[in-house]
Design brief:
Chains A, B: Its cofactor is pyridoxal 5'-phosphate. Chains A, B: Catalyzes the cleavage of L-kynurenine (L-Kyn) and L-3-hydroxykynurenine (L-3OHKyn) into anthranilic acid (AA) and 3-hydroxyanthranilic acid (3-OHAA), respectively. Chains A, B: It catalyses: 3-hydroxy-L-kynurenine + H2O = 3-hydroxyanthranilate + L-alanine + H(+); L-kynurenine + H2O = anthranilate + L-alanine + H(+). The structure is a homodimer. The first copy, chain A, starts with 8 loop residues before the first strand and ends in a 16-residue tail after the last helix. The C terminus of chain A is likely disordered. Chain A has two domains: 126 residues, Aspartate Aminotransferase, domain 1, CATH 3.90.1150; 224 residues, Aspartate Aminotransferase, domain 2. In chain A, helix 1 runs antiparallel to helix 9 and helix 4 crosses helix 5. In chain A, the strands form four sheets. In chain A, strands 4-10-9-8-7-5-6 form a seven-stranded mixed sheet, sandwiched between helices. By secondary structure, chain A is of the alpha/beta class. The first copy, chain A, has twelve helices and 15 strands. The first copy, chain A, is 35% helix and 13% strand. At the A-B interface, helix 1, helix 2, helix 4, helix 5 and helix 9 of A face helix 1, helix 2, helix 4, helix 5 and helix 9 of B.
């Protein structure tokens, strides 16, 4: 298998897309799959499609495909909802596994919604749980026997810094804590062995490196030997052992399917299923190797061409994911100027320009071309024209 | 405006679809809208589409359209997630408004997932809350000053029996309880004045009478004067006052947007937005009038033609929604025989055949034709051939 596989994607002419860490590009088959689901399945089969088109099983089928990309066994991954909701499910289940402990340990670099969901759950429970968020490098030291659950995002959304999954999971377990990994910036980006890590839970989203499209469903992994011990707080009918028995009492499914909640988003799941076919025959070790080659090249080129930019990502390959961030006091304006010229990355406060590297559709020539544009913007002060435009709501 | 408006929908040849109360039919514009979102917005604009294609505002825009169909003011309805999750949000917020009370009152006819979500929330909180489920006709009597929240589905998914929204809401408020209405079988089916009811919360789904497609997003209404008092337990970043400030601390949005959670399902929301255009110029009073004419006709025809079927739906028009259920000891097999002949309704245990009436795409001739097929199946015992087929997972 050769990388990149640009022929599998629709990439606009004139665009170098270094934002696959935010929203992946469009796989070529997605539109046809959506049309099929809408016209043939929904339109033609109507309610019967829940059986005849396999809609009922789709969350599990898609979950199995994701499992294969994160080092998880079949049947251990459920899909649906948003990542925020999946974070809540994992946290809720984890706290119930450690009823004598009150601390949720995360870090200050976690993506805000993970912290917000923890805060919301703490308020809902109302028993004085505490969320602690030390700096990322201080997490291991902060793991004590007060900690019920350690919840971390594996790759930092701002800097690309990657936690040591195995070491932190071991430290959590040594202290008797449950481990939750958020793989938002890892799934499809780095080689993962979530089962090997022994972590109890992992969650992630599919619209970044997995190219599932805007608002694509999230996923949750539960370590298979623990599923009986997981008490779903979001106890929806699709997670029931027999949804169509219409029992008045909740009985969770015997498998990871208990992490399903409501009626699955069939249209988005179908497009995601199609998007995942681009991974057929792809070795995640080859992706990781190409990703590091691309990001190393980017770092070297930017540092040679743009000395005023400060690398905010760890230089050590094993300590970073598949994105590179550079700081600039006018990073927002510089990024706008880049986007205006077809080089699409994004910006995160206070001053970080983020560039994601997706070896399925980015190659060395793209990297070099992008750095040439960046160099030109900085040398000519072209970013000043973009400086005073309104702040984009999403970048 | 004339009813029906069959020209706005794709309905398969040879099908009389009396299951719009489960999954609405395909509006003609849906496939083109999906193609546009996928190819032009996602494929062409990529991450920029969050602003340039209006993705960020889509949950609110769609919520406003739904608001107009349920008698709610603009800005009072948020969309996204599944109905199960929206039930949880409403229950969680309601319990926080009545911290001194421990009872959630529902009824034995509520859709199971509503009861399950209550059970799950009770387990997560872990403070001894109780779910009570009297028979539907005994709900008002069961409202006491122990009750924190009354949570009911307005129209019963099995029988079509409709609760008196105003009377029950008044009774709940008289006892100091918070009122939550589940409008799953009401929105787009009956005329609603949710604001006039003074209920604190309403939730609903959009894949039934609103034709949003399989897994279309749910909605939640919050009475506008109460929004400041709503503390979201599912405190996702999209409900934050400033999602892209990336604050470590959660601050809810000042509006109903605080009921948003994670990244919205743009593809499903866009198709739903398109689906809702079929309601342009439609008067819900006219829909209700046509719905009752169709269901009255159906009841009369079935009772004349099929005396062995027992009406399970209230005969009194003001006491039912837009579906009619008949009981038969072999209802499952009879329904299979109907479906085999192109008359699509569905079955709910233990013995109910459900038929939904959707005046946008069903007319009197459809009703009469459907009852002719039903009569023939019963007179010829044609259902016996379907009796021993496997039980469908979804009907």
């Amino acid at each position: 298998m050769q990388l990149p596989r640009k022929d599998l994607f629709e990439i606009p002419d004139g665009v170098i897309y270094l934002d696959g860490n935010s929203l992946g590009v469009l796989p070529k088959g997605a539109a046809a799959r959506a049309a099929q689901v809408i016209e043939e399945e929904w339109g033609g089969q109507l309610i019967r499609a829940w059986n005849s088109a396999g809609w009922m099983d789709l969350p599990r089928v898609v979950g199995d495909r994701i499992a294969s990309l994160i080092g998880a066994p079949k049947g251990s991954v459920a899909t649906g909802d948003t990542l925020s909701v999946k974070v809540y499910q994992a946290l809720d289940a984890a706290l119930k596994m450690r009823p004598d402990r009150k601390v949720i340990l995360s870090d200050s670099g976690n993506f805000p919604t993970d912290l917000y969901m923890a805060q919301g759950l703490i308020e809902t429970i109302g028993k004085g749980h505490i969320l602690r968020t030390p700096e990322p490098e201080d997490v291991v030291e902060a793991i004590s026997d007060e900690v019920a659950v350690v919840m971390l995002t594996h790759v930092d959304y701002r800097t690309g810094r990657m936690h040591d999954m195995d070491a932190i999971t071991r430290a959590a377990h040594a202290a008797g804590a449950v481990m939750i990994w958020d793989l938002a910036h890892s799934a499809g980006a780095v080689a993962l062995d979530i089962a090997g890590s022994q972590a109890e839970f992992a969650v992630g989203c599919t619209y970044k490196y997995l190219n599932g499209g805007p608002g694509a469903p999230a996923f949750i992994y539960v370590r298979p030997d623990l599923i009986d011990a997981v008490a779903p707080g979001l106890a929806g009918w699709m997670g029931h052992a027999a949804p169509f028995a219409m029992d008045p009492g909740y009985r969770p499914a015997l498998t990871t399917e208990r992490m399903r909640i409501g009626t699955p988003p069939i249209l988005q799941l179908s497009v995601l299923q199609e998007a995942l076919t681009v991974w057929d025959g792809v070795d995640m070790a080859a992706i990781r190797s190409a990703s590091l080659r691309l990001s190393d090249l980017f770092i070297a080129e930017v540092e040679a061409r743009c000395p005023e930019l400060i690398l905010a990502t760890p230089r050590e390959p094993s300590a970073r994911g598949s994105q590179v961030s550079f700081a600039h006091p006018n990073g927002y304006a510089v990024m706008q100027a880049l986007i205006d010229r077809g080089v699409i990355g994004d910006f995160r406060p206070p001053n970080l320009m983020r560039f994601g590297f997706t070896p399925l559709y980015i190659d060395d020539a793209d990297v070099i071309a992008a750095t040439e544009v960046l160099q030109n913007i900085l040398e000519t002060d072209a970013w000043k024209a973009a400086k005073y435009r309104r702040v984009s709501k999403v970048t």
